[in-house]
Amino acid sequence: MKPLPLGVRVAAGLAVTALEQARRLPQQLAGLPLTVVSEAMQLSMRVQQHVTELAIKGDDVLSGLRPAEEEPEWATFDEDGDNDTAVVEESADDPWEEEERAIAEVPEFLPMYDELSIAQLRARLRNLDVEQLEELLSYEKAHEARPEFVGMLNRRIATVKSQ
């Protein structure tokens, strides 16, 4: 037997497929709202992911353009508490360090030093000479020994000496 032309075979296949789809139509109509909602939610999730990815890329680019923010004085972390405990324990073991802390007085040229935030101190450092900066540094090391203050004072001393 000779095969039928391709067009006839394709048309017959389309007719059978249409008939099968028509038989499944009532079941598909019942699930259609759920399918639409599901696809809408998936689309929403994809859009949110793309927006988040774009925000992350933007943050990466912009972080290079602006200076890093310093840690606010009100921000505390678990690690900070552990370090403070370690410093207290070490100083309790060393009576000489306790005595140095007791002897060191707030420098006369900056009597409110202990109450200053790091930003407030930074604003006042420009008016101080090397001797005053070194006095502040030794006072800070003897009392609080806050890393951000010690680092800032060391950098300022180096800057003033290089000028």
UniProtKB/TrEMBL annotation:
Organism of origin: Lentzea aerocolonigenes
Taxon lineage: Bacteria, Bacillati, Actinomycetota, Actinomycetes, Pseudonocardiales
Highest taxon of source: Bacteria
Domain DUF8129 stretches: 119-156
Name of protein: DUF8129 domain-containing protein
Pfam families, sorted: DUF8129 (PF26450)
